[in-house]
Amino acid sequence: MAAKCFSGEMTSIVDLIPGLRARREEGLASRLNWLRAGVLGANDGIVSVAAIVVGVAGATSNNAPILTAGLAGLVGGAISMALGEYVSVSSQRDTQRALIAKEQVALKNQPDAELAELAKLYQAKGLSAETAKRVAAELTEKDALGAHLEAKLHIDEDDVVSPWHAALASAIAFTLGGILPLLAILLIHAAVRIPITFVAVLLALAVTGAIGAKIGGSPVVRATIRVVIGGALALAATYLIGHLLGASGLI
Prior knowledge:
The protein is built from 8 helices and no strands.
């Protein structure tokens, strides 16, 4: 009987390990999300800049307006992406900080109630009441705030997101993606620049689409085809508009 109790108690304690493992996996998932966001940012850069330069190239073979429009789209798009990411991540950071501050106040004003709440959380994970209280007490003694943030909110005080890092990463990803179509259309002879740029852009979109799908766990082929078709439609539409404007003599 004692052996059974001991075995059951040990099993309950081990149940904490999946929780800690889940926290590490959550950190890995967060890094993968950042990577996926970077891939999507590069994808946006490819499509946005390619659509602009192909549209202008459809109206004129002169490099000057193509370069001007391409650079404007590249810089403007990178700044827009950075600002959007900064605002979004700033809101997330403010929410995290507010939750951390709230938890700090609760620990200061009602430590006994918070300790009991932490014990209940561990008990809900499968620990016995006695073990849950002991684990909660030991973790509280070591790092009360960290224990509560992990168990209740699944966040780490040291892992509060940085909006500046997010903005910079987004801008860089967009810029790297946008440079490809800009260089492709400027460095290739005017007679074949449009079809070659189309091919280069669609191949790049296939790569980013496949990588993004792989990171996100989506079907690779379906996601890749979707991205390539979307990019092809964007390029075809802007080229047609540029070509019609150029043929009309309006520009």
